[in-house]
Amino acid sequence: MARRLPLIFLLMIPGVYSADDCWGVTYSSSHICALKGSTVTINCTYTYPTGYQIKKVFWTKTQTPTDNVFPDLSEDSEYKQRIQYLRDKQHDCSVRLTDVRHTDSHEYYFRFITDKPDGKWIGAPGVTLDVTDKPVISISSSGVIVEGDSVTLTCSSESNPPVHNYSWFKENQTSSVGSGNIYYISNIRSDHSGQYKCKTRHTCGEKYSDSVTLNVLYPPRNVSASISSSGVIVEGDSVTLTCSSESNPPVHNYSWFKENQTSSVGSGQTFSISNINSRLSGWFYCVAQNEVGSQRSDAVSVTVGHSSYRHLLFGIAAACGGLFTIAIIIVLILIIMRIRRVAKTKEAAVNQVNRQDDLYCAVNHVDLASESAHCDDVQYESVKPQRLGGEQTTAGEAPESRDPEELHYATVHHHSNAEMRRSEENENHYGNITNDKPDASVRSNVEDTSVIYSSVK
């Protein structure tokens, strides 16, 4: 087999094309890769000197004639039904080959014969056709793959040229998960499930296989039982138990058991108990089963109480709520009463201060400078004793005499500024104090010593 040369050098090879003698065959490509079962077209043109006429053109796959005869592919039983010349018998020598097979991997040449003895030509070197196919993956544990098994994937490819590199890929992953024509998985797990494909690489390029699916089966796991009621269960209630799990293939059978009992008490993913009574109290669990195996759940408690127990709880809850409300009301009342007491205390204190200020302004001795600060323009005052507002008797007699401290002074006379100026001339000043005389009915019973005079210095 002749050595393959790139097309850029093919145009310079003597015998393919020569500008001196004008004999030659030019191929569009010196190497063609075709996929098994596909159709391939080899394009070429040829030239010959003027004065010659074409008698025969054909394609052959040998450079060495047998008895000086080159076999014509159109007369070969393996090709004649699949080969089609696209020539125009002048300069186009293209050919089309359908349903390409691995046995078609050869080097092909175009040959033409003219009407003169020296007018024969073959385009050598020719065009090399390599036939490849898509890699094929085979699984060594054919059938069911169960978690914990070992699995071998084999990638094979009938190609010419042969494959020199294999890579393995899992669905939706850009990086390879293995190399070599064999991919081995020991102790396979459920997360190994998915689609796999292999990629082959050779001089014709890269080819991917069709995907194969690994479906790893495993028994039920993460089996758990739950109860629908989250509160107190009393006689007459209805209770629903639910069993959940994950598995491949899905669970096809759920069974319910009560602790310390060998026979099942129910079936199905949900188990309902209506009109429950205290005899059904206990621990319940479920068992999930598929084609691979089974697993049981942890037990859940179903505790059934008497109906009076619920009423008791309701009563306790209502009583606690009532006591809480009463406590809040009492606290609010105490707060309001305290606020009112504080307000009254402050008001009484303010009134007391005001009375003391009035009394001090009336009877205390102050100099003119301080008097102006405390009592504004009040400089000198006269105080008149007023009798108590007691009721007279029907006989016109005054009531019993009272202590002198009970007499209050209320009448205060304001002196004008002129009087104040006159009083400044004398360092010692006495305020005019007028003693109001009591009524005749009262005067006889009041001692002269009971009249209190206030002097201002």
Question: Can you describe what's shown?
Answer:
The chain is an alpha+beta fold. It folds into 4 domains: 7-132, Immunoglobulins (Immunoglobulin-like); 136-214, Sandwich (Immunoglobulin-like), CATH 2.60.40; 221-305, Sandwich (Immunoglobulin-like); 368-450, no CATH class. It has 5 helices and 31 strands. It has helices at 7-10, 307-363, 368-375, 417-424, 440-443; strands spanning 24-27, 31-35, 40-42, 44-47, 54-60, 83-85, 95-97, 106-114, 120-122, 127-132, 136-139, 145-146, 151-156, 165-170, 178-179, 182-185, 194-202, 205-208, 212-214, 216-227, 233-234, 239-248, 253-258, 266-267, 270-273, 282-289, 294-296, 300-302, 304-305, 381-386, 408-414. Strands 2, 5, 8, 9 and 10 form a 5-stranded mixed beta sheet that branches. β17 and β18 (205-208) form a beta hairpin. The longest helix has 57 residues, at 307-363. The model is unreliable at 1-20 and 365-457 (pLDDT under 50).
Summed up, the domain count is 4
CATH topology term of the largest domain: Immunoglobulin-like
Question: Structural class, judged by helices and strands?
Answer: alpha+beta
Count of helix runs: 5
Named CATH architecture of the largest domain: Sandwich
Determine the fraction of residues in helical runs and give it as a percent range.
Answer: 10-25%
- How large is the radius of gyration? 63 Å
The top level CATH class name of the largest domain: Mainly Beta
Q: Residue ranges: pLDDT <50 for 5 or more in a row?
A: 1-20, 365-457
Strand % is 25-35%
CATH superfamily of the largest domain: Immunoglobulins
Query: The biggest beta sheet, please?
Result: 5 strands, mixed
* N-end to C-end Cα span: 152 Å
Mean pLDDT: 76
Shape: elongated
How many strand segments? Answer: 31
